[in-house]
């Protein structure tokens, strides 16, 4: 019996997506070919819709789960905007740009938010799902969007009547690309440009509204509003994560463009700074420009956006952009995993924001009960002085099974407190903290890449626990990371560029991924035997 929000099989088409990083034909017996009814009949699907695989066979018997068979609505087939290769990721539909409005994009990682921004900015030419090498020309693309707002938008992009710029998602790469002081690059970009006159038959963007065009912000004005005046004369390589994020936002804001796109604006920023940045982005809005904001912090998206597009799907497989919604409605759709207007459920569960100390008993009444906690660990009062900075941590305790959040502004000592509790930094006065088995995720993702010795000296050091030596990193994954780091330095010059989507750049290395997949497979076999 079909459940509410479930699409019937007569309205579905199935598409096969292959993850080449998981596929390892040397370590299997090609179960996918033996179990596939299409191959058994001697037919090659050739990347077309797969109609012979049932819902129960979505993994196609692949031991590494490298194949995904996804079911999509037939109505979406004509709305394919871009596809990365024959068996690669597919993006369906695009957000609708609205002048004078801030458009927010929310969705899971690797579902296509950054790809959608690149297409709208003109930096990525959509292929309309043609993966056979026949690229689409812009005339076909404009025909695809004929009669919609996107047709006029892309026409202006092509004729260079409007210019777009994207704040990159991964700000850790900025110091490697820009060498110099903050003021130098902000001043270089803070130039008024001469707009190309519209061709005959196209309405100039200046005539969309009678509102006078907003003056271009100066470097000092942007620095004051983002509170980065004190770092203007500092080299970019010396900036912290939060300072680097605000510099990246400032680098976009000082430019004379018509379309501002901000991809991930809250990374490295505390709550206070996020609100200031969100307010700053709202102030960039005029009746003549376009603004797009992508972020995982729903409160930031709610604060900055006028309308919201939800991007749902499966990471690295496919993504669908919903029509624009009111901000509150869009956030509710994302949280509930259900689109009422289309009677479509894209997630089997709702995102729960219940207290971490409670969970559902699973009975019909839906009663709540406390989570059982384990032993309590007490730590003494701790003092630590690092240069002019001093932190005082009062004595406290935590229980096994608890999730504890450290809340505070940047630079107040949260990371230092974690280092003290983990035993990675010695406290003043020789005060000792309980020695526990610690798994520590660092704040800055680029630390290990820039200084691999940190991984060996800090994250693999043995920690005493009940008289036993335990390492914070367990092989084979730890050994794999070291081997990969050595080989990556040798092959860095031989690596060729590859088109990668948004969050896909955060993927593990192939060796790490193989180790994780093997571990998952062994654990799954143990569970099945039990």
From TrEMBL:
<dbReference type="Pfam" id="PF04068">
    <property type="entry name" value="Fer4_RLI"/>
</dbReference>
<dbReference type="InterPro" id="IPR027417">
    <property type="entry name" value="P-loop_NTPase"/>
</dbReference>
<dbReference type="InterPro" id="IPR003593">
    <property type="entry name" value="AAA+_ATPase"/>
</dbReference>
<feature type="domain" description="ABC transporter">
    <location>
        <begin position="67"/>
        <end position="337"/>
    </location>
</feature>
<dbReference type="Pfam" id="PF00005">
    <property type="entry name" value="ABC_tran"/>
</dbReference>
<protein>
    <submittedName>
        <fullName>Putative ATP-binding cassette sub-family E member 1</fullName>
    </submittedName>
</protein>
<dbReference type="InterPro" id="IPR013283">
    <property type="entry name" value="RLI1"/>
</dbReference>
<feature type="compositionally biased region" description="Basic and acidic residues">
    <location>
        <begin position="498"/>
        <end position="530"/>
    </location>
</feature>
<keyword id="KW-0547">Nucleotide-binding</keyword>
<keyword id="KW-0067">ATP-binding</keyword>
<dbReference type="GO" id="GO:0016887">
    <property type="term" value="F:ATP hydrolysis activity"/>
</dbReference>
<dbReference type="GO" id="GO:0005524">
    <property type="term" value="F:ATP binding"/>
</dbReference>
<feature type="compositionally biased region" description="Polar residues">
    <location>
        <begin position="466"/>
        <end position="484"/>
    </location>
</feature>
<feature type="region of interest" description="Disordered">
    <location>
        <begin position="466"/>
        <end position="530"/>
    </location>
</feature>
<dbReference type="InterPro" id="IPR003439">
    <property type="entry name" value="ABC_transporter-like_ATP-bd"/>
</dbReference>
<dbReference type="InterPro" id="IPR007209">
    <property type="entry name" value="RNaseL-inhib-like_metal-bd_dom"/>
</dbReference>
<dbReference type="InterPro" id="IPR017871">
    <property type="entry name" value="ABC_transporter-like_CS"/>
</dbReference>
<feature type="compositionally biased region" description="Low complexity">
    <location>
        <begin position="485"/>
        <end position="494"/>
    </location>
</feature>
């Amino acid at each position: 019996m079909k459940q509410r929000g479930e699409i019937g099989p007569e309205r579905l088409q199935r598409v096969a997506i292959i993850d080449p990083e998981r596929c390892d034909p040397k370590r299997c017996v090609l179960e996918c070919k033996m179990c596939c009814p299409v191959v058994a009949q001697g037919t090659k699907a050739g990347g077309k819709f797969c109609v012979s695989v049932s819902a129960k066979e979505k993994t196609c018997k692949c031991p590494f789960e490298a194949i995904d068979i996804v079911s999509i609505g037939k109505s979406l087939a004509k709305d394919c905007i871009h596809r990365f290769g024959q068996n690669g990721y597919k993006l369906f539909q695009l957000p609708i740009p609205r002048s004078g409005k801030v458009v927010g994009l929310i969705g899971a990682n690797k579902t296509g938010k950054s790809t959608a921004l690149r297409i709208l900015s003109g930096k990525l030419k959509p292929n309309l799902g043609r993966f056979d090498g026949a690229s689409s020309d812009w005339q076909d693309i404009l025909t695809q969007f004929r009669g919609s707002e996107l047709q006029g938008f892309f026409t202006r992009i092509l004729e260079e009547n409007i210019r777009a710029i994207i704040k990159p998602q991964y700000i850790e790469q900025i110091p490697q690309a820009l060498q110099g002081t903050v003021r130098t690059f902000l001043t270089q970009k803070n130039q008024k440009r001469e707009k190309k006159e519209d061709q005959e038959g196209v309405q100039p963007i200046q005539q969309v509204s009678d509102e006078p065009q907003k003056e271009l912000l100066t470097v000092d004005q942007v620095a004051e509003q983002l509170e980065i005046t004190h770092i203007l004369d500092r080299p970019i390589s010396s900036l912290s994560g939060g300072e680097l994020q605000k510099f990246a936002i400032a680098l976009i804001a000082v430019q004379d463009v018509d379309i501002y796109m901000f991809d991930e604006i809250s990374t490295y920023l505390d709550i206070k700074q996020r609100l200031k940045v969100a307010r700053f982005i709202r102030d960039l809005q005029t009746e003549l420009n376009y603004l797009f904001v992508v972020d995982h912090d729903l409160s930031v998206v709610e604060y900055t956006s006028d309308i919201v597009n939800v991007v749902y799907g499966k990471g690295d497989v496919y993504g669908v952009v919903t029509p624009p919604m009111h901000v509150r409605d869009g956030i509710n759709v994302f949280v509930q995993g259900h689109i009422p207007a289309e009677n479509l459920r894209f997630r089997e569960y709702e995102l729960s924001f219940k207290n971490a100390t409670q969970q559902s008993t699973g009975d019909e009444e839906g009663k709540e009960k406390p989570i059982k906690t384990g032993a309590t660990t007490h730590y003494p009062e701790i003092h630590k002085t690092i240069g002019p900075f001093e932190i005082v941590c009062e004595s406290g305790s935590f229980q096994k099974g608890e999730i504890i959040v450290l809340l505070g502004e940047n630079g107040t000592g949260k990371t230092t407190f974690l280092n003290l509790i983990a035993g990675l930094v010695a406290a003043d006065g020789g005060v000792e903290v309980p020695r526990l088995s610690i798994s520590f995720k660092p704040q800055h993702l680029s630390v290990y890449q820039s200084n691999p010795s940190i991984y060996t000296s800090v994250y693999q050091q043995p920690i005493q626990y009940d008289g036993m030596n335990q390492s914070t990193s367990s092989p084979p994954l730890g050994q794999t990371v070291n081997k990969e780091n050595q080989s990556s330095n040798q092959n860095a010059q031989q690596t060729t560029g590859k088109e990668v989507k948004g969050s896909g750049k955060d993927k593990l290395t192939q060796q790490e991924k193989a180790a994780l997949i093997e571990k998952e497979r062994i654990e799954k076999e143990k569970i099945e035997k039990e």
